[in-house]
Amino acid sequence: MNLPAFSELRATFKASKRLLILLWRVDKWLFIGNAISVSVPAIVPFVNAYIYKLIIDLVVNVVSGLPFQYDQLYLLFAIRVGTLFIQDAAFSAQNYFEMLLWTKFPVHLYQSVLSKLANLDVQYFEDSSFKDKLEKVREAYAWRPLNMLSFLFYGYQSLLQFVIALAAIATLNWLLIFLFLLISIPTFVNQTNYAKITWGLWQQNSPYRKKFWYLSDLIQSGYSVKEIKIFQVASRFLSELQDIYNKFVKDNTKVARKQFRTNVALNLFGVAIYIGIEIFIILSAIARKISIGDISYFTTVLSSFQNAVNGLFRNGSSLFEAGLYVNEMFELLDTKPKVIQPDKGVKIKVDKPASIEFRNVSFSYPDSEQKVLDNFSLTIESGQKIALVGENGAGKTTLIKLLARFYDVDSGEILIDGNNLKQLDLPTWYKTLGILFQDFIRYEYPLKDNIYFGKIYEPENIKDIINAAKLSGADSVASQLPKGYNQMLGKTFEGGLDISAGQWQKVALARAFLKDAPILILDEPTASIDPKAESEIFERVENLSEDKTVIIISHRFSTVRNADKIYLIDKGKIKEEGSHEELMKQEGTYATLFNLQAKRYK
Length: 602
Ligand code: ADP
What we know:
alpha/beta; four-stranded antiparallel beta sheet; 21 helices; 10% strand; binds adenosine-5'-diphosphate
């Protein structure tokens, strides 16, 4: 039996303190209500037991031939009615406040965790150890802290009961205190240790749980059903799920068995002491050291004590277990941003595209040895239209992520109108960037909102939305939908319709166009759109963006041929650069690839 590490106990203590402070801040009446309503049921049973003792002693007096004192009896019963009523009322209040707690507090937790996640750097979401942590917190953050609060309040109730019972028992014989403490300690340690083991298992199993959720999502979600059917992979996934499940069952059974054995031994020990004290009480009465009423009183104190001890163990170990989870939640809430923004950032002009310069930039992703960019330099003048082409994995998207400061460069600089990107006020910088990422969002919202989200910080203007849709071809999507711009998209919500990949892309493009940012960056914007529609879109983009800087990443060489300058990126370096004509003349890789693609389209 090993004791929980001091650091873990301290962590639980810290989490408890923080959680209670949080509850106090969210709603102090809820805190006070819970605290009072759990205190009363801890105190009243002792008062009741004492009154009952007085009543029995009155009866015993009569039986022994003394005159019956009716006044005292009435008074005692009146008090008894009062205390029983208070106790019942406290139970009702306890339910009421607990329900309020479970209604009010989760909203706050959701808000805190989700707003934290919404504000965390993109790089966290590309980091698998952070994702592990997030997975753990995600499973439990809405209910574990509430559980913990319950354990705290009920633990406090048991503690109060424990202390009162100890004091009451001490009036019989103070040595009895030690007997009880004796049985308390090993059980407490056992329970706490159990919590630690289950927590250890949970942590250790984290990769399996991740796999479990991944596989169940894969089977449950609609997007993968087509492939799963055709490739007939379901049985493989199901058997993997079963294996993981078997492992969970085996591990947990092992812990439960171990705990069962220790518990049985400890219970035996506890019962022996309990009976010993009962005998002590009876013997004290026979020796006339205490009254007959006292037998009832001390027996009640004894069973209350036993209840309190059980409650303390149960709540204590559950508290410890919950504390470990809740700590993870607090750790997540304490996650510091990695991209540090300057206190007073440079606010660049938002009405005109800034010039962009990558100067000797080198970059590797965290936890990766591979240099994605190695001493990379590239200048984009204000209003220039450039294209980045190159194989998958060449580093094109990484350039955009660096430009959006999702990551900081390892060395070198990115200069925006001559200012280091690290000195810029990011919200202003983002206002000037309209980026359509490859993995854009398909919002399950009406078509109109899907576009409007591009300019959410301004009031909705349907005219602008339709103009943007016309530019991207989403207008023709709207005309094919029964409810036009008000058509709910996606299959999740009632009345929703799914649209094709190319149509989604047009909607996403419209969103980027609506933003009307001076710098427009499109990463594979037309991968799912047919070449004819694509060339129409780009014609319109060129007209739209005379004074804008445009950066297009594409695999399709026809998409980029009109760019002022085309950069062929290879393994994080510029291999060839120039206009389409210049590059064709060079007869290098660009020319070879262009001819290869052109042949396919002929
Ligand atoms: P491209 O856009 O040219 O296809 P990327 O910029 O996406 O290429 O990727 C460049 C390289 O960086 C690839 O080798 C890729 O595996 C790696 N990479 C991309 N994203 C990450 C990431 N989040 N963590 C680690 N490596 C990454």
